Amino acid sequence: MDTSPPDPQLSALYQELILDHYRRPRNKGTLEQATHAVSLNNPLCGDEIDLQLRVDGDIIKEVRFIGRGCSISQAAASMMEQPQGQVDSPGARAGRPDERHDAGGRGRRAGQNVG
Predict the structure, then answer these.
(1) What is the mean pLDDT of residues 67-81?
(2) Number of H helices, E strands in the chain
(3) Does residue 14 lie in a domain region?
């Protein structure tokens, strides 16, 4: 395993990307006619993300999120816009209607149908 320090230019690029998505989140808000939804939280730090997808067949058509937490968690949620138009992924399958997950990946029922 490589234990050398990270490249400073690459680290600066990652920091810039994270801050950009945190300051100007993409696709933040609720999604009308969502077919998949999942709520994620990290009880250790308080990060919360509600992710909604609209999937048609095997194609992710739209992604939206609502959340609060640190810049890294919110930037990561903002970056979820990128799978739009892609084939259904394990991330989309994890958010089938009524499913909730905590940070450990354990599912629990949300009690509300999405689709």
Answers:
(1) 87
(2) 3, 5
(3) no
Residue 23's pLDDT band (cuts 50, 70, 90): very high
User: In terms of residues, how long is the chain?
Assistant: 115
Tracing tokens 């994270």 back to the chain, one arrives at 18
Give the CATH number, domain containing residue 101.
3.90.1010.10
Which residues form the domain of 63?
27-106
Please give the Cα distance from 84 to 60 (Å, whole number): 5
CB-based contact 63:37 (threshold 8 Å): no
Angular region, 87: left φ>0, alpha ψ -120 to 50, beta rest: beta
Q: To which residue do tokens 């968690």 refer? A: 73
Residue pLDDT, tens place only, 79-89 = 876 655 655 55
Residue 10 placed within a domain: no
Number of domains in the chain: 1
Residue found by looking up tokens 């067949």 in the block: 57
